[in-house]
Amino acid sequence: MKKFRIVTTSFLLSICHLTLYGQTITDTNVHFGMAGNTLHRFQSVDGGGSGEDRLSYLAGVQVGFGLTEKLTLVSGIDYARHNLTVVSAPMPEQRSTDGHITTLSFPLGIKWNIGRWFFIQGGPSLDVQPTKWEAVDNQNGIGLYAAIGGRYALGKWSLSLTPSVKQYALISFGDGSYPQRLLTAGALLAVGYEF
Asked: Taxonomically, which superkingdom (predicted)?
């Protein structure tokens, strides 16, 4: 928990530093989307439980700080609800349990604008799982996301569609030898405003 507090404090101070020392907000957006999700482990666990793929729903706000004409530092906050089905180990009998977890994510990435219509975006994300579900390992940690999107500008307003993939808890703040990791892949629809 101490490691989590240190990382959270460092992240928030870095955002405050950008705001206070000369970086101007160049754009902001509100987004929502859906994604398929899966639970996996990086190590093989013989005879262990598994998960079935389900849907995640996401909503958030993002701000961009202009670095150059083509590069923007982006950050914000995302709320996601991940519907999951956990399948137990086959001893004595195999059972499926449906449930969900919620996550709050604080991404800090770089957006590279390619021409007028397209962009690539990605970077680390501080992920917090506020509530615990005993069937799934905690997803607190530092994850990674990547996206390729298209944007249509309407004056200062814009509409964008962004296919993305996100790996939660690459660096986990939880316990356990073989923790489950959440992976999502889907699309976000965003309405933005450029300053």
From this structure: Bacteria
Tokens linked to 183: 């992976």
Digit-coded pLDDT (tens) for 66-82 = 999 899 999 999 999 99
What range defines the domain where residue 82 resides? 2-194
Express each pLDDT in 117-160 by its tens digit. 999 999 999 999 998 888 888 899 999 999 999 999 998 999 99
Question: Long-range CB contacts (< 8 A, 24+ apart) of 174-178?
Answer: 174/137, 174/138, 174/139, 174/140, 174/141, 176/137, 178/41, 178/43, 178/45, 178/48
Contact 152, 138 (CB under 8 A): no
Query: Helix or strand or coil: residue 58?
Result: strand
- Domains: count for the chain: 1
> Structure tokens of 29?
């957006």
Measured distance CA(42)–CA(44) in Å, rounded: 7
**Sorting pLDDT into bands at 50, 70 and 90, what band is 35?**
very high
